[in-house]
Amino acid sequence: MEEKTFQTVQEIGFTSLIQKIRNYSGTDRIEIEKGIGDDASVQIIDNDKAVLTTSELFLEGVHFDLTYHPLHHLGYKIVTAAVSDIYAMNGDPVQILTDIAIPNKYSVQMIEQFYKGVDAACKDYNCQLSGGDSTASHQILAISVSAVGVANKKDIIYRNGAGKDDAICVTGDLGGALAGLRILMREKEYWKSNEGQQFQPDLQGYEYVVKRQLVPAARMDFINMLSESDIKPTALIDLSQGLLADCKEIAVQSGWGVELFTPAVPISVDTRKVADEMKEDVDKYAFYGGEDFEMLFTLKKDDVEKFAINFDDFAVIGRMTESKNEFRINTGEGDSIQIDL
């Protein structure tokens, strides 16, 4: 059979694409403890210390819509996304670098608003904007952000450390970012259908979910707690792609199966309200939404109660199983759903 010479990314998906990219990683360096495949790369700088590096890319019209995303909120959000990756390695973010491609339609004042958001986030996360690059763009605003952090080598937590029967846990609540996006998109559609009229979006009663979408916060409190605790997660990842996708990542890299319990997944009343209004399944908001930037982690089952003494903003939502190619979701209604790993 003749090998295909043109294959779309959609045909294989980004996970499979990344597996192919891993074949082109240049020269292996002894200093690089971890390259492609986790939230950040890990470079060992001495016997005890490591440097963590990660990057994120945001494209206008793909990752954000300036119809409803103020530029200062966008600046804050991109820093949150990068810092969250450093936290997902149990590291401390030190510096941020931003690269930005700017079309002529954006004014100096608009770009300043963007960097005010970057500045505010850097202050909240105790890191420094230390550089980057800028250039012109013909059509869209494009932004890349990199974060550099530090960690003690012994404290780094990878995605691949989960063990059989470990409890699967999440911080906070899930699906709020997608709920906020659904409200913002609804208001935009109403505005488009009433062009020429004075319009003010009605966001009253949706403040929580809209904030989750526009100005999410990385879980610095969780990482600060870990530094004071003698109990550490066995695996850790931040929830940026959605619960199912990120849980699959831990399962595949750790070599175990997954059993999730739908009724245990924490979803706020505000998120449920939006799903009801939209006549949509709120569980799908939590499973597929992404951009909540909560922490998904595993704990040895005997450590769960002791862990809760130091940190109570988390829920146990499942367990790692010995069925290595199985991802099972228990609905709580006597049914279970199988997903391929």
Written account of the structure:
This protein is of the alpha+beta class. Helix 2 (71-87) runs parallel beside helix 3, helix 4 (176-192) crosses helix 5 (207-214) and helix 4 (176-192) packs across helix 8. It contains ten helices and 13 strands. It folds into two domains: 9-155, PurM-like, N-terminal domain (60s Ribosomal Protein L30, Chain: A), CATH 3.30.1330.10; 167-195 and 206-340, Phosphoribosyl-aminoimidazole Synthetase, Chain A, domain 2 (Alpha-Beta Complex), CATH 3.90.650. 34% of the residues lie in helices and 25% in strands. The protein has a seven-stranded mixed sheet, sandwiched between helices. Strands 1-2-3-6-4-5 form a six-stranded mixed sheet, with helices on one face. The protein is globular, with a radius of gyration of 21 Å.
**How much helical structure, as a percent, in the residues?**
25-40%
The SSE string, one letter per element, is: HEEEHEHEEEHHHEHEHHEHEEE
The CATH superfamily of the largest domain turns out to be: PurM-like C-terminal domain
Total domain modules: 2
Question: Tell me, what's the shape?
Answer: globular
Low-pLDDT stretches are: none
Number of strands: 13
Nearest-integer average pLDDT:
92
